[in-house]
Design a protein that fits this description.
By secondary structure, the chain is an alpha+beta fold. The protein is about 25% helix and about 25% strand. A five-stranded antiparallel sheet has the order 1-2-3-5-4, covered by helices on one side.
Amino acid sequence: MNQETSPQAPSPQQFAARVPATRRGARLARALATEELRAWGLPLDPASLVIAELTANAVLHAHVPGRDLHLTLAVTGDTLRIEVTDTRPDRLPAVQRPGPGDDSESGRGLLLVEALANRWGVTSGPTPRKTVWAELALGATQEAPWALAVPTGVKA
């Protein structure tokens, strides 16, 4: 006798979405992820900023016509892991550090990711894919890397 098995539902702390590798798809990924974070009761920032940067980078630098992006969110312990998978393993992301007098308005996305995330990196495969990921600490006991100091004399 053949048994039909239903696919396992993801755990309550996992979310995955496939979106078009377009600007509209990047906005959709951020909107979907924001709603999922809200449903989990997690803070939206800086996660929504990291999601926006990673999806925008994938659209801008790794777009392949007819291929989608895959966004995954997962909470393990006190860490939120954000993953954006694209189909351009030959285009690895690199942080661009601006030089003196560099007033360009683009090219700073991974600097933001580096500043906001506790860790980030790239995982290759399976062919023809790569995944750019970032991890954010959710623990309230340690100071977040994105916390900004308020200058003396300024009311927060």
